[in-house]
Amino acid sequence: MAETVVVKVVAAEGASVPFSATAFAAGADLCAYLPNGPVQIDQSGYELIPTGLIIEIPFGYEAQVRPRSGLAARYGITVLNAPGTIDSDYRGEVKVLLINHGKAPFTVHNGDRIAQLVIVPVEHCTYVKVRTVSQTDRGSGGFGSTGV
User: Fold this and answer.
1) Would you say residue 126 lies in a domain?
2) pLDDT tens digits for 33-48?
3) How many separate domains does the chain show?
4) Which of 6, 120, 134, 141 has its CB 3.0 to 4.6 Å from that of 145, i.e. a possible disulfide?
5) Which residues on adjacent β-strands are paired with residue 39?
6) Is the pTM of this model over 0.70?
């Protein structure tokens, strides 16, 4: 069994704490916190949707904000900067940047499940300036260099 990572959550009155929809779900659902009314995302538009949550992620982990497949498949709604990263030292409100790639305006209501939150380990590195790096067969071949 995998280790349980504890993420502390401060939730505004009426905000939903992240929850897993099924026992083995990789992500926990994030819900919109819109107590003042719904937000419409026009076709090709994007909006920053609040969750009403402040989270404390343990050092050595990050939270990734990922799209919900059902919203993408049904309405063309996705997370613009997917996956969005929340660093372990961030203590502001979690917000989700949604974009509408669909064919019609989309309305987000208070409590709607809008994204998934996945907690993953990260390696902390030291970067060392050097004059050269080792050679490989690929070399500097970048985007598309290995074919389509």
Assistant:
1) no
2) 999 999 999 999 999 9
3) 1
4) 141
5) 108
6) yes
What pairing do the DSSP bridges indicate for beta strands 39-41 and 61-66?
unpaired
CATH number, position 63: 2.70.40.10
* Cβ 110 vs Cβ 38: under 8 Å: yes
In a domain, 32, yes or no: yes
Cα 102 to Cα 92: distance, rounded to the nearest angstrom: 30
Question: DSSP E strands: which ranges in 42-110?
Answer: 46-56, 61-66, 77-79, 84-86, 93-100, 106-108
> Cis peptide before 121, with omega less than 30 degrees from 0?
no
Give the residue among 111, 103, 96, 23 at the shortest CA–CA distance from 65: 96
Question: Count H helices, E strands: the chain?
Answer: 1, 10
Length of the chain: 148
Domain-embedded: residue 67: yes
For residue 137, is it within any domain? Answer: no
